[in-house]
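Problem 12. The chain below contains 505 residues. Write out its predicted structure in token notation.
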Amino acid sequence: MTAIERSRTVAVVGAGTMGQGIAQVALLAGHPVVLHDAVPGQAGVGVEAVADRLERLVAKGRLDREMADRAAARLTAAGELSDLAGSSLVVEAILEDPDAKRELFIGLEGVVAPDCLLASNTSSLSVTELGASLKYPGRFVGLHFFNPAPLLPLVEVVRGFASDPQAVERVYETALSWGKTPVRCADTPGFIVNRIARPFYAEAFAVYEEQGADPATIDAVLRESGGFRMGPFELTDLIGQDVNEAVTRSVWESFFRSPKFSPSLAQRRLVQSGRLGRKSGRGWYGYEPGAAAPTPHTAAPEEAPAAVSVVGDLGPAAALVPMLEEAGIDVTTAEGGGPYIQLPGEGQLVLTDGKTSVEFADVVYFDLALDYRGATRIALSASADTSRRTLAEAIGLFQKLGKQVSVIGDVPGMIVARTVAMLIDLTADAVAKGAATAQDIDTAMRRGVNYPLGPGQWQERVGQDWAYELLTALDERCPGGRYAPSLALFRQSYAEPATAAGEAL
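Solution.
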């Protein structure tokens, strides 16, 4: 199946920010583009806005003058829906109202040719439901761009229950020809990104609600240890707490209130109080003039032990062994038992495994890191009865490696580890249920929300059984189903290890 020819017209309905962005993408790919809006005069405003965008690109040296002029000449405003009659693809980008969208597509069916493809840019509504009222639902697909459309590469191509596979592939190839990174997915709640991303927010909010750490510390740990571009508290302040919570609640309701997607009570209270983030001047953090910058908890300097013993295979944290040696610490190794780092004061330093420090005599847990060499911060957790010496030695050890240390509460799974484990679990479940391929999910999470690794790549790095074992331990300590490993993850724990990232889930 080939992409829509560049000589064929693409229509965009909805001349707001997203519609303008989609029109710009199609224009620069070489198509004639017609922009329509139900509000009189708004299509003309949109055309002018797109032309201004092209001029700014020329001024910045990002677009050739001749190319910009040719693109602007191919863009026209449509006052009536009937003006879209010659289109080969119509992309809808109006408000997220199912009734308004259905009415629009029914109207379009009376205007466009039978072979014209119809696509909705919806981010949360069911493509199957939107297309159900059409005479020819086979030509209707989801085409979800991310904002700003000209800049963000990812596009989710969503197949509704009645979508013709050829229509889906033609839209996919068209998005690819536009220079985008399309991924295919089924019409499931949240599609890929808004489904798989829920734990990134939910686990951070849960740690906060459990009094494990403050927002600034959780954000810092996920950035500086987990490798994420932004922390969930600062990111939801940027998105808008009301917007983020609405997506969470929509996915939760669509999955029949599954505990896997439960909303946060703390975020609900934030929305109820009107603290919506940057747009209201206050959210998790303050944005009013003179507001203090978020400051994570950072432990005071401690003396590092001169020698430690590494017992067993540290697994995802194995890189710490040569790092300790390079830092001048005398390291001995012992097979059998563990895995843990034996400290001089008889305490143990253990990579978080979903259990709690209070269960053991004198244990300090440390969190998962994307790259222990590159990480600039490490989180530690200890219980009230952990000895002061053991905690000090653990802090000093990581400080000797050049890391800042944040000590959090005795939270099972800590911060990065429980987040990554849940991402892996939701991905395994989505793949098993045919929502998308593991490769497309990895691509979507890296290109759509800038994750440092896709969930399948994380699983390859930490080991095939790691997430299952951590979540099993978490489920025992936090019963209710949220952390119960999916059947797909359970099956993987009995499978042969994958040999490539794309096969990991």
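Discussion. The chain has three domains: 9-187, 195-280, 307-408. Students who got a different answer should revisit the alignment rule from Section 12.3.
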